[in-house]
Amino acid sequence: MSKKCILNTRVEAEVLSPSHVYLEKLHSSSSSTSSTTSTVLQELLTTGSSSYNVLLQEEEERGGGEHGGGGSGTPKRSLSRRWRPRTSAKSASSAPHRKKRPAAGAPAPISARTIAVLGNAMGLSQRPTPRSGEKAHTRQPACSKLPLLPRSGVTHRVDNGRRLCILAAIKPSNVEKEKVKFFKSDFTYNPQFEYSNPVSPLVLARHSNASGRFLTQAVRIMELALNKYGNYENFEQATGGNLLSRSRIWANVRKYMEKEGCVGEVMVHVTDDLLSRASMTVVSGRPTLTINISAAREHWLEGMLRHEIGTHYLRSINNSQQPWCGSAGRKRHGLRPLNPTEEGLASIHSVLFRRDPTLWRAALLYYTVHLAARASFAQLFQGLGRFVRDPTHALGLLRPRQEGPDRHGAASKDQVYLEGILNILRHREQIDFPMLIALGKVSFEDVERLKASGQTENARIPHFLQDRAAYAQQLEKIMEVNQLTDQELRLIV
Questions:
Q1: Where along the chain is composition biased (Basic residues) (predicted)?
Q2: With contact defined as beta carbons under 8 Å apart, do 259 and 44 qualify?
Q3: Other C-beta atoms within 10 Å of 22: how many?
């Protein structure tokens, strides 16, 4: 059952690990039995954004169909709830603006065009000084005009010609039945998933080429965490903390939206029926954030919100103002694909400011996709057992996709998280991160040539980029904790 509300308060050479040895054995075994059947492709969860959002983004770039009214992927049963805040007599926007001097050692301000931030997105506008005996208000007045985002190509045609949300299409109709069989077989049975409205093989074929380019880094990151925590469940509890109640989720989301100055703009669902941890979608032109209550942990929730709102949402808002908004505009300006930059940047923001910013989940997704390309469902499950102890949790990482039952395969789009992270870290000293957000859904490689023609006057910039020196320090911490070096990144990226 879900709940819904509108928040109106504002390198080279290396020693082969056991995982590599397993992969080599599995590869040689699969080569000799290529005629045998395996069952399904795997649809994986993501760090913060659902893995199928990558597919949606790529379909949008190709100029897909209309967005169906029920294309949020959220449950039909929902309870509506509206926050009605008390607002101060004085609007926070009436406060005087003062120029903020850059801290010593901080990067120089953005050249070319200046980004004029709306509201308190960069924390530059001073709040009104409360009078004596008057309580200071931290809430912002609701926006007079809510942003309407372009409709994405997130549907596909079924046999009767009608359009169906692809989020519904990739969900099997017999998950629970096959799950019971899988557990009863002691994890040796390969589930035979059924789909009411199968996605076109052409769509799936575009996302079925797994890579091993960053496998060494993925395995090393997981083994570092394994040595420290023992397994993923311990890592999750130690670094993520306890699960949050619905009321605490509402409170934390409200507080975060105040920081970003986007109060009243985003529809929020809290549900226990979501394929992923969280998902940012557009429903009837309205941005909608769906949060899986089983993944909302006290120390990870803000990272999830930085991922979904601070990155995906704000870049979408900024993109809607650009001349390259829409597939035709992207082609006209010769834009590169938005991924792996989009998900790489969002994934970095998921672990930003964590006490332990280990990239275990992004690495686990990359490893899983690589393994799934040469393994059946049961073999893949066994291969993940070294890193994930709880069978139910491990099964939760594997999401079936419709594909011929005689093929190995994986949703290779799920490798973009680690790939994007490593690409961005490799070029972190050259990337203008505020401009990367301001220009919308663009690759970091396109920023320099686009910033002169981009509309950045009213750009929305996340609050955590207001201190660029602190942001840069956090990137260095991610490098250090995951034992990544510039020398290694230059060799592989």
A1: 78-87
A2: no
A3: 16
With b for 16 or more beta-carbon neighbours within 10 A and e for fewer, the 298-307 pattern comes to: eebbbbbbbb
**Most confidently modeled range among 63-67, 81-85, 94-98, 338-342:** 338-342
- Residue pair 43/401 in contact (Cβ under 8 Å)? The answer is yes
H/E stretch holding 315 reads: helix 314-319
3-state helix, strand, coil split of the chain in percent (to 5) is: 40, 10, 50
Helix (H) or strand (E) holding 343: helix 341-351
CB 192 within 8 A of CB 178: yes
Would you name the residues annotated as active-site residues?
308
Q: Residue 256: count other Cβ atoms within 10 Å of its Cβ.
A: 20
Task: Give the pair of three-digit tokens for residue 330.
Answer: 């992207």
Q: Are 254 and 7 in contact (CB under 8 A)?
A: yes
Alpha carbon of residue 360 to chain centroid:
14
User: ∠89-93-99 over CA atoms, to 5°?
Assistant: 135
